[in-house]
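Reviewers asked in the last cycle whether our approach scales beyond single polypeptides. To address this, we selected a multi-component target totalling 692 residues and predicted its structure end to end. The input consisted of the following lines:
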Amino acid sequence: MRITITDVARESGVSASTVSRVVHDNPRISDETKSRVRETMERLGYFPNALARGLAKSSTGNLGLILPNSSENLFVNPFFIEAMRGIGVEAQSRGYNIMFSFSNNEDEEVGFIRNYIKSRWVDGIILLTSRKNDRCMAYLRKKEFPFVVVGRPDKADSTLWVDNDNFHAVYDVVNLLIDRGSRSMAFVGGPEDFSVTRDRLSGYKQALSIRGLKEDSGLIGFGPDFSESGGKATMQALLTERRPDAVVTTDDYIAFGVIDALLEVGLDDIAVVGFNNTLRGRYQTPTLTSVDVNPAELGAGAAALLIDKVTRREGASDHRIIDTVLIERDSTSGILLKSGRKKPGE
Amino acid sequence: MRITITDVARESGVSASTVSRVVHDNPRISDETKSRVRETMERLGYFPNALARGLAKSSTGNLGLILPNSSENLFVNPFFIEAMRGIGVEAQSRGYNIMFSFSNNEDEEVGFIRNYIKSRWVDGIILLTSRKNDRCMAYLRKKEFPFVVVGRPDKADSTLWVDNDNFHAVYDVVNLLIDRGSRSMAFVGGPEDFSVTRDRLSGYKQALSIRGLKEDSGLIGFGPDFSESGGKATMQALLTERRPDAVVTTDDYIAFGVIDALLEVGLDDIAVVGFNNTLRGRYQTPTLTSVDVNPAELGAGAAALLIDKVTRREGASDHRIIDTVLIERDSTSGILLKSGRKKPGE
DNA sequence: AATTTCAAAGCAAGCGTTTGCACACATTCT
DNA sequence: AGAATGTGTGCAAACGCTTGCTTTGAAATT
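The resulting structure, written as structure tokens, was:
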């Protein structure tokens, strides 16, 4: 027989309400009673039933995590598992549990969110990507349900968000490339409706203008996704019109595709930069200069923000910016050598 | 105001119990009533409260997932995210939710399990690794709580499990290497208390003996973990005594370490095989022959088994074997070339 | 015509907590 | 001494659903 609050109450000669108040350390209960009740709880091995508690308080202490439509490349990317870890660790340390679901498309995502909300499993929801006109966000806003998004939201309202300073991250990349001698730098991004793509593009444009280089729309391309094949195709299209001396991309996998496209036409002296500091970028040939976006911190920040919100903590801010780290490797050392060996002297 | 089962009842002129029975499609309710009630539910947008339901049924429809102590290398390994995906997809398709937690050590794991069970958040638990004398398993058995483990359990009792046929997987690898000409084959495994290590070792021994090669304990080593550095150190130790012509490992990362150790002493003609078919193995130099263990299938199988169990489905078996696929690449093509180019003619 | 059988639906007691309000008693103030 | 505070607990009504047992009325059986 499972032991309940009434067992504890009977056993320590008080009412169930008193036991409940002891559990919550209510100041109206005398220290004497508290310690007596606590001793009984200990002895009986009492543990509150989360469901009953949730029902009574109408709040669960769970957060829902929506993983984006899993085009395969999203899962070879350690970004997500790292973000999940950040979320998990932060949530655990504050007594929250995480429920997750995998979806195949935006419809399914909305379906899961709907289910989480309506069945009252969770107190808040974490979205792991930010898109323009995101239907998940629209739904959550309509329902006025607490949520946080990793990435800058499309609309500037009270939405909680956590993101890198993508503008500055790219700004630094562009400066590095200019310092390395680039005069005609291309930009190959993911889909244009992701805020991360748009932010990085504007960092690119700003930096060019500040350094006195002309922006050229012929040097800017957007892929259909964040995949290697998408990056390759985009680069190939771009190459029919222009011959850049460096390429800034918004993801390592896009960068791999770009490098592929370049090498295929014999261009092995073009600098390429990726984002997300993937493992493959560290081992492939050439090793890839990349921006580490600190996914675990992004996740932890998101969880923290959301928990602050649902616990109505005072003075909680509505966003958080996570630092990035630019990691320079061979792909910007001056020459893309097929052999992958570092250019001597760089 | 949130709408409840009584609202639906009132609105369609029946009792709450009837509505509940309609929701569960109880045959004792007439079709006429069912359709009337369903129409009302639709119109009102009724959605059952999962907490209340769980409290009444004392079951939640949630499963708990315990991710192993996160030594970093476990997370660069796509095995886990893939397994999670398999679990998630299977669970979702059967109306179950997944809660997960990250732990840093076995104590924490047991703590999370205890919490899941005692607070009654979940109906069953999935363990993602199987160790000898695992305290999690011991605890779960003591509590008689339903769980499933990925990997063969240490004790042969009624424990649910799903695993590859590690014995045969290694058996095939050994045969391949012998066919390629190996006569002195080493085995470098992970920690000996993981059942996966022990199973693969016995496959190795069997295959050797069947093919008429002598087993040599000097050719067998176990690393402290599944990491690159561990693999390297183990191989280095082994090399002080022996000079094998091929190495079977139990993980790609161990294999990377092994290759490193070999190349450092100038041995570039030794065949090496890994497990888990990691991305890095596909791109590094040389590309690595590896066994794909189908992590998503392992995860899905685990979820399926556990759900069958907690729903007391008839005829549910207690384990499931998932096929592996041996993927041959350059590292067994005869010579480990530093350039990573395929040996011509192989 | 009286009795049995059966289908369909309702009653009410849980499931285990939380919490506003009431209550009893002991202090302190006029 | 009577009134006003304060302090520590208990009562009982939620929270929203499930389910064993009953009831009701009609059809089938003797």
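Residues 14-18, 21, 28-30, 33, 52, 54-58 of chain B lie near DNA strand C (CB under 10 Å from a C1'). We regard this as preliminary and will revisit it once experimental data from Aim 1 are available.
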